[in-house]
Amino acid sequence: MSMLEIDQESLNLSLAKAVITTKHSISELSPLVTCHEIDFRNSTIISEEQNSVYQKIRQHRYKYYLEKAKHLTQEHEIASEVSIDSRSIVYALEINKQILLSLRVTPSPFEIESFQLHEFDFNQFYQYAELGRLVSDPDVDQVTTALLARYLLCYTGLQAFEKFQFKGFIAICRPFRITYFKKFGLKDQFAFFYQKRKLSYHVLSAKMEEILLHTAALQSNESYLLKRLKNKFRL
Asked: If pLDDT is split at 50, 70 and 90, which confidence band does 1 have?
């Protein structure tokens, strides 16, 4: 057996383990948490119910923007967001009819390319997807938010690799979100200051193989998250 075959076999085992652990988490949390997936890349199949969820996601985002990111409430930013959503897959976690966390997965061309980072070669991310708009409910405590983010990122990774065949992820985020993405396996590539928004950002990325090494290990505290959610929402 060649080294290439061994590596592929190891990768397949890692993927299988990640799939098993993530699906176990989904089954454990599904009585409390609804995970929405809206694939806008084929708008003809978006149901009325999905559109209703999307409107809730937009309201959830706007609530966060008003408190944490006022620059994203500007009309041109909202228009850009909707435009990118229309060719993306949008995920959200909902409890008691309340969206607590959302995330967008966008195939190339990425939102980050509009930042005109000429020194960065985006061709290296062929068949990757961009993670963006990781938005949390500002009323939810940081520990719960971190646990939900871990869960949603693992679920998204499972879907991206198993269902959509993406080869890896690239992400852009503010400094305070780096920890979430690093625990998911993404590596910090570089930081830059975006003059138009007067804000600093980080660019992270990882291949599927690197992410899989982290994903299976992350899904280990479902009981703790369940207990915390039950206490917080009196379920």
From this structure: very low
